[in-house]
């Protein structure tokens, strides 16, 4: 499965010279070791609390969704509790929420309180977080009844702090297919943890809802539109989930296998290792009534099954890729993180490489720069490609500048950005073959503030393709954008839905990488947060350790399950990650033999 990748390592080393569900049933609670129990209900109104404290208590309780927000309704008058519509998409705000008296008089026994916060986005009924940073000001009316203040008028929906949302939900990944149906694509959701007994049923409801708008054109579902669950998902004493779907039309064998893949991979994320998958009470795959996660992974093409973003087979574990090499562009040469020169002319400095990336098929893409006569105005950058350790060929992609290249997971395409504004891709003509430039429709970036020429507001300075190939992360004007990679049946590609991630928190950014398909690592100029983890939807932002680092951090290499590698003013550093968070301590470890200004890259 990893033959091509291991071949690249050998080449480099040798060349270096060495909807609601009808019915109900008893469902066994699915909980993996380490999973948190159902969150406890937040406290109700404090006796003799004033209007400000009462409104704040309502906000703090709004993250608990159990029994139609029963905890939050306790802060309302009986009349308001009976009429409040809590079903609208909750507005997710940052954790700093102010409650102040509104600037208008109120008669005795009544009060008007204004809630002020910064909205981060909304959570849709399908569990999708849609980013949208904006100020929020909402007025809430209160009435004093029997000496106690209660909310008597309020808007529809809820206002939920980010921390309360995360305390009452768990992230799950729903799995779909790329538009060519060549491999699985994940789409993050946030699932309320209460009631725990319905977690598997609600997880599959999210799957049945189809891909989110953020993946429009990049993902499809083989589940026919209108498919529902005939009953709740149950779990047998042996741990097999029983899923019974409604039939909405004829299904051929390929589509049945794709449905089985989507369902098993999605349930694997909540700890289910085997599924009895039925359609109208009959096995979806008659020859395989029960489908294990390991069987699904084994049935994928090798170039897909090796992806580290897929769920882990509980029997054999993950694919394991400790041998994955890191290429480092250092002073015009390509080196391995071990310090050894990479193979071929690139390792000897023949191309004056300023950045590079390898594919999993053993190919290398190098950005080579020339500055004739030392005149910066005459600088030209060219993208060279070829088999690792060999002579590299001109691809036909060039400009005044090219960002570090990035490969699709199958190694058939390499992408870059020309002159800060034009997204370009080269399509490989077979393993080790020449690369042919093909256009990318990137008009969606214009609406996101990316402009030309270089030096204008919003030039693109970094791009990385996600581990599943469905998204492109970009750094534009110092901010982070994520775009869907939409493809058609004729080989065309365009950038679809574009989201800017947390502009108030992620600015002065210089580089970006993928630690998971649903998480990015961002590095840049900010002294207070030179290295930051951010969820792909912008909900979560977490600063990592700065110990030993000297900002700005100019480049980062990331890969699921592997240590982060960064470059700063003092050299090159590594930090282990475990499941998307730091592990093995919070101190960055120096990589001997490298100075400042290196550009590291994992394959991809």
Automatic annotation (TrEMBL):
Segments forming domain GerMN: 200-288
Residues making up the signal peptide according to the UniProt record: 1-15
Keywords: Signal
Keyword Signal on entry: yes
InterPro entries according to UniProt: GerMN, LpqB_C, LpqB_N
Signal is among the record's keywords: yes
Record-linked Pfam families: Germane (PF10646), Gmad1 (PF10647), LpqB_N (PF25976)
Domain of life: Bacteria
Entry protein name: LpqB family beta-propeller domain-containing protein
């Amino acid at each position: 499965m990893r033959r091509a990748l291991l071949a690249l390592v050998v080449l480099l080393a040798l060349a270096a010279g060495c909807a609601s569900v009808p019915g109900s049933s008893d469902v066994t609670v699915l909980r993996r070791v380490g999973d948190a129990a159902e969150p406890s209900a937040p406290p109700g109104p404090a006796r003799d609390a004033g209007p400000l404290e009462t409104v704040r208590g309502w906000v703090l309780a709004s993250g608990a969704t159990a029994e139609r927000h029963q905890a939050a309704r306790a802060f309302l008058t009986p009349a308001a509790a009976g009429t409040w519509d809590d079903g609208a998409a909750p507005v997710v705000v940052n954790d700093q929420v102010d409650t102040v008296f509104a600037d208008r008089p109120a008669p005795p026994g009544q009060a008007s309180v204004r809630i002020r916060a910064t909205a981060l986005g909304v959570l849709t009924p399908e569990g999708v977080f849609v980013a949208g940073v904006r100020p929020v000001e909402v007025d809430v009316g209160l009435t004093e009844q029997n000496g106690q203040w209660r909310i008597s008028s309020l808007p529809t929906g809820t206002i939920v702090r980010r921390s309360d949302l995360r305390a009452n939900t768990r992230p799950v990944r729903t799995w779909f297919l790329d538009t060519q149906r060549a491999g699985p694509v994940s789409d993050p959701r946030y699932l309320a943890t209460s009631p725990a007994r319905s977690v598997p049923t609600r997880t599959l409801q999210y799957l049945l809802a189809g891909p989110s708008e953020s993946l429009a054109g990049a993902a499809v579902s083989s589940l026919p539109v209108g498919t529902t669950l005939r009953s709740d998902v149950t779990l047998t004493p042996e741990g097999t989930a029983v899923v019974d779907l409604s039939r909405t039309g004829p299904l051929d064998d390929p589509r049945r296998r794709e449905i089985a893949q989507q369902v098993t991979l999605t349930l694997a994320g909540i700890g289910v290792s085997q599924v009895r998958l039925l359609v109208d009470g009959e096995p979806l795959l008659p020859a395989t009534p029960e489908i294990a996660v390991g069987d699904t992974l084994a049935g994928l093409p090798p170039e897909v099954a090796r992806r580290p973003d897929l769920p882990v087979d509980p029997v054999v574990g993950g694919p394991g890729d400790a041998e994955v090499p890191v290429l480092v562009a250092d002073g015009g040469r390509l080196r391995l993180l071990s310090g050894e020169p990479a193979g071929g002319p690139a390792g000897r400095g023949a191309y004056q490489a300023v950045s590079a990336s390898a594919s999993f098929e053993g190919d290398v893409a190098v950005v080579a720069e020339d500055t004739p006569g030392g005149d910066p105005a005459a600088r030209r950058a060219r993208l060279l490609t070829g088999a690792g350790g060999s002579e590299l060929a001109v691809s036909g992609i060039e400009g005044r500048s090219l960002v570090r290249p990035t490969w699709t997971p199958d190694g058939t395409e390499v992408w870059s950005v020309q002159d800060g504004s034009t997204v370009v891709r080269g399509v490989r003509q077979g393993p080790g073959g020449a690369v042919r430039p093909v256009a990318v429709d990137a008009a969606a970036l214009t609406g996101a503030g990316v402009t030309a020429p270089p030096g204008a507001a919003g030039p693109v300075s970094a791009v990385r393709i996600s581990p599943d190939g469905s998204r492109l992360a970009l750094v534009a004007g110092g901010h982070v954008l994520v775009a869907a990679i939409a493809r058609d049946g004729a080989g065309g590609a365009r950038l679809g839905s574009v989201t800017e991630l947390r502009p108030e928190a992620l600015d002065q950014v210089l580089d970006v990488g993928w630690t998971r398909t649903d998480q990015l690592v961002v590095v840049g100029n900010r002294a207070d947060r030179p290295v930051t983890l951010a969820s792909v939807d912008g909900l979560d932002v977490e600063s990592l350790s700065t110990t030993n680092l000297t900002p700005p951090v100019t480049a980062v290499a990331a890969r699921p399950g592997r240590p982060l590698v960064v470059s700063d003013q003092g050299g090159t550093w590594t930090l282990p990650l475990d499941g998307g968070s730091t592990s093995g301590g919070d101190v960055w470890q120096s990589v001997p033999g490298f100075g400042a200004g290196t550009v590291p890259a994992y394959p991809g």
